[in-house]
Write a structure and sequence with these properties.
The complex is a heterodimer of chains A (about 725) and B (about 100). Chain A is an alpha/beta fold and about 725 residues long. In chain A, about 65% of the residues lie in helices and about 5% in strands. Chain A folds into four domains: about 170 residues, P-loop containing nucleotide triphosphate hydrolases (Rossmann fold); about 100 residues, Helix Hairpins (Orthogonal Bundle); about 200 residues, no CATH class; about 160 residues, no CATH class. Chain B is of the alpha+beta class and about 100 residues long. In chain B, strand 3 and strand 4 form a beta hairpin. Classes of the chains: A alpha/beta (about 725), B alpha+beta (about 100).
Chain lengths: ~725, ~100
Amino acid sequence: MQTTIALAGNPNAGKTTLFNALTGAHQHVGNYPGVTVEKKCGAFTFNDKTFNVVDLPGTYSLTAYSLEEVVARDFLAIEKPDIVVNIVDASNLERNLYLSLQLMEMGLPVCIALNMMDVAQKRGITIDIEKLSNLLGVPVIPTIARNGRKGAAELVEALYKMVDRNHKNGDVVSPIININISYGIDIDSALLDIEKIICDYSFMTDKYPTRWIALKFMENDEQIIQLAQKHGELFERVLCDKCLRDPDSCPACQQISRKCDTQLMQKVAQIVTRLTQHLQQTASTYPEAVIADQRYGYIRSLLRQGVITHHYDQNRLETSDKIDKILTHRLFGPLFMGAILYAMYYFTFNYSELPVSWVEGFFGLLASVIDNFLSDGMLKSLIVSGIIDGVGGVLGFVPLIMFMFFFIAILEDSGYLARVAFMLDRVFRIFGLHGSSVMPFIISGGIAGGCAVPGIMATRTLKSPKERLATLLTVPFMNCGAKLPIFLLLIAAFFQEHRALLMFLITITAWIGALLAAKLFRSTIIKGESTPFVMELPPYRLPTIKSVIIHTWERTWQYIKKAGTVILGISVILWAMMTFPAPPANVDNSAPETALKYSIAGRIGSSIEGITQLAGFDWRINIALLGGFAAKEVIVSTLGTAYSLSDADPKEVDTLEQRLKSESNFGPLTALSLILFTMFYAPCFVSVVCLSRESGSWKWGLFSVFFNTGFAFTLSVILYQTGSLMGF
Amino acid sequence: MRLRHRGGKMALRQMKDKERGVIIAVNATGEMGRRIRDMGLVPGAEISIQGRAPLYDPVAVRIMGFTLTLRNNEADYIMVETESDKTLQESEKEYAAA
């Protein structure tokens, strides 16, 4: 017998941690509002029963405000989980119960996991659990998901009992406790009227309780209103089932259905308008506001019945607020933020040096071993020049990327990233973005070393379509983990003494470019008003080692997987492009360069050399940049292949860094121009696909390819030409 | 004896740092009104100003034991009745004495 459990709760209530404790599945744990956008599944067994657990996105409410709320609501309504485990932050009971009430109003079988009991205790909050459970009419289980899975076993047992009881009751889904909050005489009577209409037209009565639908109509819920407008179609099918004719060929039914959907909406709208006018005149308010006020009023009166005791002033400053006094201070805040970011680079670069050299040494050794064992020929060339150089070049950066992700995980889990959003919102707004754009930017590589793909997906937390689109189009400018290798390579080759400083400057440049581009978009192709910035500042929490490690490892693994699959394939394809066709026998191919130039890639690279020379790029760089369209990691590996292929003595396994340094037409200026171009040109193929999907149109995907490349090329040409004129 | 100003009605934006008050009205409608209310900023809720971002915007508000941030132009929609010109620290002292 299988049971589906949905985990619902506010962001930062410990939902994901509880999910991990229940299922043992490893997944992303964050401390930033709205970090779990995707639906995540896991399973566990207890006695004879298997429980499938679905982790819903964290939401504060079940209105159709954000995509997360719609996702959570749709899942609850359509999949009808057997039990909804509502994770409630005990230290923040009042606001958390707002969601609980809405879950119960939806007629769902709710079980409350009262989480963070330890935090509540520290804040001097005592909760009478039995009373809370009795007043709400649902089981309440205290848990501390963060440390040692305390309470998880009790929760599982309670869930088991709930399911068991249901089964004994003849396999019916839980006895649902109907919670009927009174919204005052005016609204209550209007609700009853709407409920009657809903029943008459059997609108969604199979999915939601009628009272909930009526409430949503009164709240002007876009999704429900849209469904109501479409309801006629459904009605049509029901009617035609009765008259047994094809719905399209039954004019009678069509007429009835069209009539009924307009009638349904008309009747409901009439009641809502009348009520709105009445409330406007008598209390200068409107139904939606009254409903929210009453829900909070209900919670307050419930808690006042001795459920909660505050031993301290509720709004007294906690340790977290005291920390904030310094960390978001007018002067120290930004200074500290800058210092934190700089320190991250400093540690990353200084401490990852040794492991990077180990990995590089390993691949160097591998290459020379194979070099000795295999005889010269196509196979050896494929393995050494194609596979080892390509994949090795990418894997060499794994330790570095791991360090970077490690620090980001700490910042994210500790709650500091939310402060960054808070401090930077004023700045972001200037560029037509939102403080919450910080997260997609940082994930994409705002703190160098992210990836645009999850960054693009993280824009889902942004509600306003305009700010979201502007963020979507500009996050690929950030320095993702895949761009890092080329920067690091060039820095190591030409700016060895100023590594940390240059990396810092590269990051700043990416930000400036992205913000200016966003401003350009927001004042031309995507104009419009800004959306509300109502955000929670979660209390600072010491990140747990386990979650930081899971976090770091997951992201690093994604990078390695990409290297092992996509990059391997691309390395082989590019190797083939650079090897075939071989020059005819009558051409003097004593110089290997001739062979490379003769290949498909060489021909493409050479044909556009005339233009790209303006930015200082020769045909070899062109090949590498072309490869970068597929994935940015490929730039380094292709350069590696291009240079080792054209090496006069293939026996000599030279590092790419030294090779570049010894090239006469490759100087610091070329390196800077290449860094700039790599930063801003077309996003990788995967990003383009994601961007198109998230923006809902291929138009935007293609736009980013052409706009970004043009933008990057312009900047590189300006830099290179100015630099040349100045004599660098 | 110094004359104490005994509070008054004002928009949340006008509140000073550490000042406390009770929300009396939320005049925002639509999306913004919904989000503001969902987070617990409803009439009757006690709030105090925790601080402001380095550029004085957004503002951090303490409510029901957690911290919320909102922009100044959003704070304009929220009307507050301040208790008095007592700061949080002063009332904490009083509280401890009681």
